[in-house]
C-alpha cells in the first residue's frame, strides 16, 4: 500500500531537529535567483535546504513514506555519507485544521568503504529521534 502524501506541507520537530517537507512543490520563501527548495533541515549544527532532485522518497508497504536527504557527503568516491530520513505516515488533511502526528527520524552515518576489510565494525551507525509532526495544506483556508 502506497502512503498518499496528501498534505502540501509536513513540519517535523523535536530533539533539536526542525524539518519541513513540501511533497507537492517548492515551499518557503521564493527568492529570485535562488533555487526553490522542497525540504528544509535544521539542527544545532547546520541549516540546509534541498531541491527536488536532492530528496528521495521511498515507500515501505504498511509502514510509511520515508523521506531522505544527504546532510554530508565526502567528495571522495565511496567516502562517508550522513543521511537524514523521516518516516511520514499517511495523514488525512481536512479543511478545519492541520493534523498532528508522532513519528521517528533516523540519521545514518555510513563509514567510508574505500578499502575492503575482512573483519570490520558495522559500516552504518544510526541515531533515532522521536519527532512530532504536523500535516497541512496551507492552500486550504482554515
3D architecture notes:
The structure is a single chain. This protein has 142 residues and is mainly β. The protein has one domain (9-136). The protein has strands at residues 9-14, 17-21, 39-42, 47-50, 56-60, 64-73, 81-88, 99-110, 124-136. It has a 9-stranded antiparallel beta sheet, with no helix packed on it. It is globular. The relative contact order is 0.24. The model has no long low-confidence stretch (mean pLDDT 84).
| Domains, number | 1
Structural class: mainly beta
- Strand count: 9
Could you tell me the strand content as a percent range?
over 45%
Order of strands, main sheet, comes to 4-3-2-1-9-8-7-6-5
Poorly predicted runs: none
Which descriptor suits the 3D outline?
globular
| Number of helical segments with 4 or more residues | 0
Q: Tell me the distance between the termini.
A: 30 Å
Average predicted local confidence, pLDDT: 84
How large, in whole angstroms, is the Cα Rg?
17 Å
Largest sheet: 9 strands, antiparallel
H/E element order = EEEEEEEEE
Share of helix, binned? under 10%
Blueprint of the fold:
Layout: E1 9-14, E2 17-21, E3 39-42, E4 47-50, E5 56-60, E6 64-73, E7 81-88, E8 99-110, E9 124-136
Antiparallel strand pairs: 1-2, 1-9, 2-3, 3-4, 5-6, 6-7, 7-8, 8-9
Amino acid at each position: 500500500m502506497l502512503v498518499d502524501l496528501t498534505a502540501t506541507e509536513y513540519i517535523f520537530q523535536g530533539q533539536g531537529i526542525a524539518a519541513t517537507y513540501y511533497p507537492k512543490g517548492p515551499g518557503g520563501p521564493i527568492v529570485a535567483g535562488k533555487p526553490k527548495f522542497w525540504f528544509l533541515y535544521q539542527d544545532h549544527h547546520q541549516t540546509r535546504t534541498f531541491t527536488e532532485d536532492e530528496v528521495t522518497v521511498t515507500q515501505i508497504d504498511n509502514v510509511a513514506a520515508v523521506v531522505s536527504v544527504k546532510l554530508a557527503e565526502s567528495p571522495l568516491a565511496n567516502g562517508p555519507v550522513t543521511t537524514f530520513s523521516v518516516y511520514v505516515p499517511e495523514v488525512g488533511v481536512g479543511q478545519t485544521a492541520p493534523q498532528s502526528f508522532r513519528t521517528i527520524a533516523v540519521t545514518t552515518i555510513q563509514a567510508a568503504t574505500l578499502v575492503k576489510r575482512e573483519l570490520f565494525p558495522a559500516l552504518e551507525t544510526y541515531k533515532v529521534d522521536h519527532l512530532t509532526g504536523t500535516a497541512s495544506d496551507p492552500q486550504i483556508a482554515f
